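Students often ask why we bother encoding 3D structure as a string. The short answer is that it lets us treat folding as translation between two languages. Here is a chain of 241 residues written in the first language.
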Amino acid sequence: MHKILIKTQNVFRHFEEDEKRIPVLRDIDLDVREGEFLMLLGPSGSGKSTLLRLLAGLAEPDGGVVTRAKMGMGFVFQDFALFPWLTVEQNIRFGLDMNDTPETLKHRVVHQLVAKMGLQGFEHSFPRELSGGMKQRVGIARALAVNPKVVFLDEPFSALDTFTATKLRAEVLEIWQERKVTMVMVTHSVEEALLLGDRIAVFSHRPATIEKIIENPFPRPRNTHAHEFVKMVEHISQLVE
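And here it is in the second language, the structure alphabet:
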């Protein structure tokens, strides 16, 4: 039996635009299970990022209920969202500073994450001095620094070149396996969803609902060139379209 960390029931969300109410999400029922890698997959503009923020508590629904267990959370943004006036080290330790963490523990956590994310030598650099891939490494390290139970990732690789995205994707998967942390990630790539996810929540077009939740049948490590994998990519692509 899976422990449920977050649960949505009949969730609705809308935006206000030119004094009109634009529905974004409707009737969203979804569970986030402890320890899983859950993918939110759907067309651009379908409300995936909106739901991610609702799950994380960064926004509240206009209808329905989001229930969260009491736990620490981290968030990795698509556009990095680093503080430009802070160094790499200061960005990583930001959450720890907010929590009044003892200085010795801050130093140890930051040192470990700098090494883990390949940021050695850049500790005192500012975001403007970093490549996109390095910025996202800092963003991931910052999310992990507070030792979260759940990490939310909003299309974290979409702004990166293919080589960097592939490498960082593998590193995130390794972190998930090592830390046994729950991850919930937004993507519009079917292949990425199948490569990373234990379950894949497939969104309809806006106003979005979850059309189907797919249990990933492939064991890890996954071969993206295998015939069965390619066929599953085609099948899910048809659902998304």
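Translate back mentally: The chain has a mean pLDDT of 93. Keep this in mind for the problem set.
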